[in-house]
Write a structure and sequence with these properties.
The chain is of the alpha+beta class and 284 residues long. It contains nine helices and nine strands. Strands 3, 4, 5, 6, 7 and 9 form a six-stranded mixed sheet that branches. It has a three-stranded antiparallel sheet with strand order 1-2-8.
């Protein structure tokens, strides 16, 4: 694969280098925002949500789904479609959660002073207004956990501003605790389960067939390392395409799928949206 030199070479080469080290990358426009949805994905046409930071399940080749577009595939990063994005890009971003990282984003001097007094030493990257403190491990992303402090890890992106200085250390409990508002439990959501049109018997010969399918779906969601929302949607779609018309799905089955998705950071609302979109896609 030849390296292009006629486009934003500094951004593209940085992205390829990061991807080679296992860091999922994506281009950012001016203003530190992702690229807008392509025409095929506009107005939620791809089946997902049109917002940038919580992108929908789309497999189009455009880097237009925020953090979920982040990839380590050099053929995608260096593809003609992405080259156009790199031409217009103002910065390189990456998905910290996909690289098993958490970024503590400190926006001002007061936030930095708090971090120095409260957090264990780790790698530090200078930013235009403050510092990024990088820790090994992932957690739920959250904004404004303290004045001037954001957490960027799963389902989020951060600008690449260089390798920084210092040794990355393990994610401490004090950082994990910043995103905890109150004790919560994963709760299954009551959801419509399609019944066999006109009644009739389930065509599956034994309950084991369905149980095995649900277990495989749970595993697929649990093992997702990036594009979690897209994985959840595609998994729901696969389950419903196989079992959605025979009436064998129960709320217990959907609860298992929702629990697996919420354990990966999806909210109950996002799970419901993905399930509803899958039902609509299949005409159920």
């Amino acid at each position: 694969m030849t390296q292009p030199t006629d486009i934003r070479g500094e951004h593209l080469l940085a992205a390829l280098s990061l991807a080679a080290s296992g860091v999922p990358v994506l281009p950012l426009r001016a203003g530190k925002v992702p690229f807008g949805n392509c025409p095929a994905c506009a107005q939620n046409a791809c089946g997902g949500r049109p917002t940038m930071k919580t992108p929908g399940p789309c497999t189009c080749p455009h880097p237009c789904h925020g953090w979920a577009a982040a990839t380590t595939d050099p053929d995608v990063i260096n593809s003609p479609t992405w080259r156009q994005a790199w031409r217009d890009a103002a910065a390189v971003a990456y998905h910290p959660g996909g690289a098993d990282l958490t970024v503590v984003d400190l926006d001002n001097a007061e936030a930095i002073a708090w971090a120095r007094a409260s957090l264990p030493a780790t790698r530090i990257v200078r930013t235009t207004r403050g510092e990024h403190w990088l820790y090994r491990g992932t957690m739920q992303s959250a904004n404004a956990v303290r004045p001037g402090v954001d957490i960027k890890s799963t389902m989020a992106y951060a600008r690449w501003l260089g390798p920084g200085t210092g040794t990355i250390t393990a994610l401490p409990d004090v950082v994990g605790g910043l995103a905890v508002k109150e004790p919560t439990t994963v709760r299954p959501v009551a959801i419509a389960v399609p019944a066999l049109a006109g009644g009739g018997e389930c065509p599956h010969r034994t309950p084991t067939y369905l149980d095995r399918g649900i277990a495989m779906a749970e595993r697929r969601i649990t093992e997702a390392r990036e594009a979690v929302h897209a994985t959840v949607y595609r998994t729901f779609l696969a389950v419903l395409s196989t079992h959605g018309r025979c009436g064998c799905l129960t709320e217990a089955h959907t609860a298992r799928l929702f629990t697996a998705a919420q354990a990966k950071g999806e909210s109950a609302r996002h799970c419901t949206d993905a399930w509803t979109n899958a039902l609509t896609r299949l005409g159920l």
